[in-house]
Every structure is written in structure tokens, then in C-alpha cells.
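Entry for the shared binder. Reason: the reviewer on the internal report wants the predicted structure included alongside the sequence.
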Amino acid sequence: MLVLGVDPGSSVTGFGLVEQISGKLIYCHDEQLKLPARADVGKKLALLYDRTADLLDRFKPDQVAFEGIFYGSNVKSMLVLGQARGAVMVAAARYGLKIFEYPPATVKQTVAGYGKATKDQIQHMVKLLLKVEKVSGEHAADALAVAICHHHQTRLQGWPSA
């Protein structure tokens, strides 16, 4: 089963692909999409949608998993983040993929063993678990962590793998 993990953001979105073969997690790809700061919202959403569609075409994942929204006090930031998530989710839905979501604390607990792990701790554990020396950045590491979390949750819950 190949899972695309996504750490959506309004300025940077992380993508990470992890495959499970015979119970082993295999690193496939990671990247970060930095959106132009001065672009209007429509352009940013189109870029997010297009890049997600490109990844879906190229890798053909079986499922997509997202890091859930953490709740903040800035309503405008939360709305923009929701729009970014929506663009990626629509791309996944257009490819007929089921969407899974995990709270940030669940992702951290699954990957690092601690629900309040730092970004550095998550990056370290992702590299260790996937046996890679480098990832594209903290958002890509978070996306890989989401994919790892989904693989573990799928196995623990006895969900079908595709």
C-alpha cells in the first residue's frame, strides 16, 4: 500500500510518500511546495491542486492521509489553511482516493512516542524509521510522519489496505 501523506499549509505544503511492503515501511518521495507570498489566493489554490494532481499521476498512491488542523486564535489564518487543505483534498477526491485525517498529537505519538514531540524530534524519527539521511524540510518530514501514522493506524485498526 502506497500512502501520500500531506502536511497542508497556506505558505508551505509538505508531501511524503511511504509504501508498506511485507510489513516494512519504504521511503518513496518527499517534497515541499513553497507558495509565492504575494500571489492571490486563487493562484495559490490552483498551484496546490496542480502539484497534488501531478504527484497523484506520477506515483498513483492507494490512499491519502492528512495532518488535521490544530486550532488557533487567528480566524483568518485558520480559514486560509482550510482553503489550502480543501485544494489538496479535492485533487485526491477527483482521483477517487479516500481521505484520512489524524490529529497532530496522534501523528507525533505514533512516530516519536510522545504527543508533544518537537519538529526536530519528528524529523529525526522519520529519518530513522524510513532509513533516509535527508528530507526536504520540516513540512516534508511532517507529511512523511502522517503517512507513517496512517500505515500504523491501518494495521492497528484492521482497516483494508486499499
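Summary line for the report: Residues 107 and 113 are 9 Å apart (CA to CA).
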